Amino acid sequence: MRLVTTAFAMTCFCTPALAYNWEPLPDNPPIPADNPQSDAKILLGKTLFFDPRFSEHGTLSCNSCHNVMAGGEDNRPNSIGMHDARGGRSAPTVWNSAFQGVQFWDGRAPSLEEQAKGPVVNPIEMGMPSLDEAMARLRKIPAYASMFEAAFPGENHPVTADNAAKAVAAYERTLVTPNSPYDRYVKGDKRALTKQQVRGMNTFAEAGCVACHSGPTFNGPQAPGQGFFMKFPTFEGSPFEAKYHLTDDGGRFEATKNPADRHMWRVPTLRNIALTAPYFHNGQVATLDEAVRVMAKTQLNKTLRPTQVADIVAFLNGLTGEFPKQEMPRLPTTPGFSVIPPIDPHLKQQRPHS
Amino acid sequence: MRLVTTAFAMTCFCTPALAYNWEPLPDNPPIPADNPQSDAKILLGKTLFFDPRFSEHGTLSCNSCHNVMAGGEDNRPNSIGMHDARGGRSAPTVWNSAFQGVQFWDGRAPSLEEQAKGPVVNPIEMGMPSLDEAMARLRKIPAYASMFEAAFPGENHPVTADNAAKAVAAYERTLVTPNSPYDRYVKGDKRALTKQQVRGMNTFAEAGCVACHSGPTFNGPQAPGQGFFMKFPTFEGSPFEAKYHLTDDGGRFEATKNPADRHMWRVPTLRNIALTAPYFHNGQVATLDEAVRVMAKTQLNKTLRPTQVADIVAFLNGLTGEFPKQEMPRLPTTPGFSVIPPIDPHLKQQRPHS
Fold first, then answer.
1. In 3D, which of A340, A329, A334 has the Cα closest to residue A48?
2. What is the largest CA-CA distance in chain B?
3. Quick one: DSSP state of residue A349?
4. Residue of B76, B329, B333 with shortest CB distance to A340
5. Separation in Å, CA of B22 to nearest CA in chain A
6. Is the Cβ pair A58, B77 closer than 8 Å?
7. Contacts across the A-B interface (CB distance below 8 Å)
């Protein structure tokens, strides 16, 4: 009799939470009407994304902190920019970012196009003095002219910062990871997730995680230009708050200066979340299991049992998708010279050794 | 009559210097007997080459300073390592480096295998405290174990720094750029070089550049482990010497401490030289035409006419080869955590902005 009960209990536990509408990843993200995709534009965007010459010292490209050969970010608490500078926030993943209504942790950019222009001129990131100066460097690289012409046919002066940003955004809209075990499961392949992952999926729903982490990219309702924000921590005063400095950063308030936005954050996607440690806006939580505990306590006022944490982590590992094969771009050349300024006022020359 | 003379003179001028044995690039570089190529080894090497996790802060990979999407280096006077550190020497190109008998500007590494282990532990480059520590990080990344097993079948403990270096060297031996206009020309396609380029080719030979820049990779006689070195400047006292700080660095002497090696340098390849500005060991010369003037004066005691410089530069542009298409590697994952240490004693935290 005991055996039967256990088997029955296991069966129950492994049935997905049917009341919740689990959605697979759409094949394509929304494409804005004023920036349609094209092969030439995507190639230009990929090339710009990998080109380090639009950083002050020619050392950092978009890919340096949003590494598409990995989880789309840099697995660091915070990125390192020009002159060893660090910001206070952790680089968000570029994978599936096209499914987000707004960009940056505080949602201050309403589109990928707007986001793309930020890091180039951020003094603690790529450190260019202005977009004009970045474009001046770009114009010294002959082959970019024809690439912009091919990407923006019919325009009289296509080589602009706005078009560069459009191209980068078009490339980013190709960075989609379909066919995760989760996606295959909800499309009908009931063997795509393990029993533990299905238990975790149920616990994820029943505990209330889906209140915020809903929808196909697990970041709540999304519409172009519309962000979905949540207060973090919602339940104040847990030991995690001091331990991980959760309230040192004002969040969206820093962008809007609206007191109602203090400690409000864009709900991040959970797609490929297993690949983007360390966690949260400040990258202070090292592991996914601790991130699950922190979330449960600060957002739902729940202390999960160790098995529940393990099950949810197993489920979250099922959100890792397939990464499309990509060819490396060839960076257009400047035969006989470099566009990176040779004079370096910050030179800290050390002994020769290379 | 004058017309005929001119035509005759042009014909003479455009005939290649037949006395000199111009050699095309071989299809393959030498492969050491103890490190045969295999697809699994090359894939492992490419993956390691692009993996930034073997630098102190997880920000730099081999490719950061030896960018294979460009000319195989970083187009900077000197590279930037951990904590904004700069060395005194310019990163050499990785393209066709497999045709060099020795590695580094001072030739201190007798093979690509030995070279590969240097930058990882150089405090002003990738800054790992030791190769052991780098391998300790690598061993935390589960999928590398099977990649090493596939690359080094039959070995009991294949996950070693020596094997990592072998794999990187195997990948680098695929970084060959065939079919430059020069190669096509010397193989019989007489239209592959322009008339100006052929004039430059002749001037290059007649002026004596080929005394050092000989052979298929224009870096003199090469044999595995055997370097070809030359004193730079050979003719001392030119104004270029002070202007470009040519003698600040002792060159090979810094590695051997043998006084005879002072200001001796490995003769660099000229393949793809148009893509690797700025020039020379210290990267102090911004343009290829100035580099040609400096070489002629300091190595041959010649002051070239502007047309000769332009012709040689045109010829050197004909040494830019075809770059093979490459697929981006996927970096093996560590689900739920990062191998990059979260604690950063050098933290210079600035305002949150990412």
1. A329
2. 83
3. B
4. B76
5. 23
6. no
7. 214
Show Cβ contacts of residue A221 under 8 Å, excluding neighbours closer than 6 positions: A214, A215, A228
Q: Is B125 a catalytic residue?
A: yes
Q: HSE on the CB side for B114, CA within 13 Å? A: 12
Backbone phi, psi, residue B182, to 5°? -55, -50
Q: Which residues of A touch B70 (CB under 8 A)?
A: 330-331, 333
Q: Residue B83: its chain A contacts at CB < 8 A?
A: 84
Single pTM value for the model: 0.93
Rounded distance between C-alpha atoms, residue A206 and residue A200, angstroms: 10
Sort strands A264-266 and A229-231 into parallel, antiparallel or unpaired: antiparallel
The tens place of each residue's pLDDT in chain B, 354 residues long, gives: 344 344 344 444 445 545 799 999 999 999 999 999 999 999 999 999 999 999 999 999 999 999 999 999 999 999 999 999 998 999 999 999 999 999 999 999 999 999 999 999 999 999 999 999 999 999 999 999 999 999 999 999 999 999 999 999 999 999 999 999 999 999 999 999 999 999 999 999 999 999 999 999 999 999 999 999 999 999 999 999 999 999 999 999 999 999 999 999 999 999 999 999 999 999 999 999 999 999 999 999 999 999 999 999 999 999 999 999 999 999 999 999 999 987 654 454 444 444
Chain-chain contact of B76 with A58 (C-beta, under 8 angstroms): yes
Q: Which residues does chain A have within 8 Å of residue B331's beta carbon, measured at their own beta carbons? A: 67, 69-70
Q: What is the DSSP string of A139-184?
A: HTSHHHHHHHHHHSTT-SS--SHHHHHHHHHHHHTT------HHHH
ipTM over 0.85: yes
Q: Which of A254, A316, A227, A253 is nearest to A279 (CA)?
A: A316
* Secondary element (H or E) of residue B265: strand B264-266
Residue B265, beta-bridge partner list: B230
